[in-house]
Every structure is written in C-alpha cells, then in structure tokens.
C-alpha cells in the first residue's frame, strides 16, 4: 500500500509538471526526482546513468527535475522495476529490451510489457573473441578444434555464442574443449594456457580484456561471415559493431564483430515533458557526456535515436528528436567563454 501511495504521489507530481509546461508555469515550482536503474558499480551502466543524471541535474533550474542513478543487478531488474513504477528509467541491453516487450525469456511469466518505451541508445556491447597469439586463431572459423571458454549459462556472451553456433551449424562438440567459466575467471584461464580463446559481450574498453592483453600475448579476432549476417538480419537487437584500433595493447587495427547496444528505457506512463527534459539535457551536454567514459567516445548522435531500440520510442523523446532534426550539430565544440 505504501509503495502504491508513493507511486501515485510521484506521478501526480509528474502530471503537475506536464500541466505546468502546458500553461507556461516555471517547471522548477514542480520540483521532483527521477530514478535511473543502472548496473554494478564496476561496469559501464552505472557511469552511464551517472552521466545522464549529471546532465539532468546541471539543467535542474530549467526543468525542475532532480535525477539519481542507482546501482542494480542490471537489465532484467531495471526493466521489472520500470514496469512496477519503482524506477522511472532503466538501462538495458537491446536484446533484453526486445524480450521484455514481447514477453520472452525471463519475462515470460509476466507477459509482454506493452507500455515499454525506448528513450535513447547508448554504447555498443560487442561480441568479442580474444585468443592466444600462439593458437593460430585469426578468424572465428579457426576456433573449430580449439579449447574455448564459451561462457557460463545465462550470461550474455553464452547466449550470443549459442545463437552464433546454431547459425553456423556447429555444436560445442566442434571444440576440443568447451569450458563454461564466468567472465571474471576467463582472462586468467587464457593467460594460464587452459584455453586457446575466450569470448566477452562487453562495452569497450573493458578492464578484463585490457588486463589479459597486457598480461600475455593475445590477439583480437574478427567475427564476421554469412552466419553473423544472418543473425543481424534475423534478430532486431543485433547490429554490426567495431572495436576501434589501438583500444588495447597490440590491437593496432579495427576489429569487426556484432553485438547488442545498451539502451535507456521507460514506461509509456512517464509524462512527455519528463522524457523530453531528459533527452534535451543529454544532447545539450553531449560533448561532456561522450568524454565522461571511454565507452561513450564512439557515440554517433543520430544513431542514438534508433540503434538497438526495439521498443517504440517514447512520445517525449520522439517529439524532441523531430524538433531538433539533425543531432550531429550537438557535437559542435564551442570555444571557452572569455571573462
């Protein structure tokens, strides 16, 4: 009962904000707080949420909204709490966004989340293969007959690996050894010569990959071919992705693969002015946002409105994007103001 009362009070405040904007009242008079569910504090989701909130709070005098980013278990928890109204926004993988919208996988018991809405797209989370330099692995096809850590069941990399193996007509039996180590253990296993290659689904730069490539002689492996293209064509949450050259020690060329995207979502019940204020705050401070974390450097403004967004756009975000048009102008770096 208390939670329902708090939710009702929160949304009454949001309705008040919407009315304030409609009649021209200063929205700061309707000050409120929004929450963003992120991820673990050592990952990229948490600093992404903090960067969004920093942009919101910087412009609080204009829109009257305070923003707090909360550390969580990640995508599934964030979607569920947005659905309950506990969180206003959540950062989720694009595949999890799709599963929630359709009621698949971990959301099967709850059914489709028809009110799920996209807000913006963030950094890519790329299916990444790291191999020992002495294992003669230079493409994904070279993994056949090798010792490979395929990832633990339920992990993002294992899900992507299983889909890719199916698309290629392979099974785990095509590897000499198929380990199921969690991501935090596999880099050490690679350098200890327990496996020839490991896989990650991660934003870049990634600390575990950086440590592995610094500790032992390794290479990044391109993940391309017809099977990959079929995955991208079949599943709307996959897209082509690249790791820029020189992201890691010894990786002097750009690596091509595929992956999902981190995305920001909300509910259709979140008032348009609240969502409009959030996206406007982010894009008005886009240069600072991009430089707040290495994973955001490669963000392309216009791609942030569509890549990996499998749920419908929230009307507040859509209205802002249409009003601005070409968002690439938001990357203009202006000279410092002289005093």
Give keywords.
339 residues, alpha/beta, ten-stranded mixed β-sheet, 37% helix, 20% strand
Structure description:
With 339 residues, the protein is of the alpha/beta class. Helix content is 37%, strand content 20%. Strands 1, 2, 3, 4, 5, 6, 7, 8, 9 and 10 form a ten-stranded mixed sheet that branches. It is globular. The N terminus is likely disordered.
Whole-angstrom Rg: 21 Å
- Please report the total strand number as a whole number: 10
What can be said about the biggest beta sheet?
A: 10 strands, mixed
User: What structural class is derived from the secondary structure elements?
Assistant: alpha/beta
The coarse overall form would be globular
Mean pLDDT equals 86
Roughly how much helix do the residues carry, as a percent range?
25-40%
The ordered H/E elements are: HEHHEHEHEEHEHEHEHEEHHH
Measure the end-to-end span.
54 Å
Oligomer: single chain
Low-confidence sequence ranges = 1-6, 11-31
Q: Helical region count?
A: 12
Q: Per DSSP, what share of the residues sits in E-state strands of 2 or more residues?
A: 15-25%
Topology:
Elements lengths: L1 H22 L8 E6 L7 H14 L1 H4 L1 E6 L4 H10 L4 E5 H9 L13 E17 L14 E3 L6 H13 L8 E3 L3 H9 L5 E6 L4 H9 L2 E4 L4 H9 L4 E5 L11 E13 L4 H13 L1 H5 L24 H10 L15
Helix pairs in contact: 2-10, 6-9, 7-8, 10-12
Summarize the entry for a quick read:
Helix content is 37%, strand content 20%. Helix 6 crosses helix 9 (226-234) and helix 10 (272-284) crosses helix 12 (315-324). The protein is globular, with a radius of gyration of 21 Å.
């Amino acid at each position: 009962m208390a939670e329902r009362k708090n939710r009702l009070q929160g949304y009454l405040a949001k309705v008040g904000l919407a009315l304030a904007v409609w009649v021209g009242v200063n929205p700061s008079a309707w000050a409120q707080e929004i929450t963003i569910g992120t991820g673990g504090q050592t990952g990229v989701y948490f600093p992404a949420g903090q960067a969004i909130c920093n942009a919101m709070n910087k412009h609080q005098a204009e829109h009257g909204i305070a923003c707090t980013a909360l550390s969580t278990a990640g995508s599934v928890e964030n979607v569920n709490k947005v659905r309950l109204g506990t969180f206003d926004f959540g950062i989720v993988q694009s595949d999890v966004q799709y599963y929630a919208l359709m009621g698949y996988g971990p959301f099967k018991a709850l059914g489709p989340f028809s009110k799920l809405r996209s807000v913006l797209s963030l950094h890519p989370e790329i299916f990444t293969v790291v191999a020992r330099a002495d294992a003669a692995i230079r493409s994904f096809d070279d993994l056949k007959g090798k010792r490979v850590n395929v990832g633990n069941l339920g992990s993002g990399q294992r899900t992507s690996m299983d889909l890719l193996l199916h698309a290629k007509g392979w099974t785990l039996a095509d590897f000499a050894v198929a380990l199921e180590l969690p991501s935090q253990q596999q880099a050490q296993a690679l350098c200890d010569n327990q496996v020839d290659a490991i896989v990650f689904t991660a934003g870049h730069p990634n600390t575990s990959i950086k440590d592995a490539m610094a500790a032992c002689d390794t290479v990044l492996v391109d993940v391309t071919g017809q099977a990959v293209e079929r995955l991208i064509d079949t599943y709307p949450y996959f897209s082509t992705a690249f790791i820029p050259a020189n992201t890691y020690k010894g990786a002097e060329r750009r690596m091509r693969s595929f992956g999902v995207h981190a995305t920001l979502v909300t509910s259709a019940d979140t008032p348009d002015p609240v969502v409009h204020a959030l996206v406007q705050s982010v894009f008005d401070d886009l240069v600072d946002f991009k430089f707040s974390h290495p994973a955001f450097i490669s963000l392309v403004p216009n791609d942030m409105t569509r890549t990996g967004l499998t749920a419908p756009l929230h009307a507040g975000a859509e209205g802002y994007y249409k009003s601005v048009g070409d968002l690439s102008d938001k990357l203009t770096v202006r000279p410092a103001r002289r005093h």
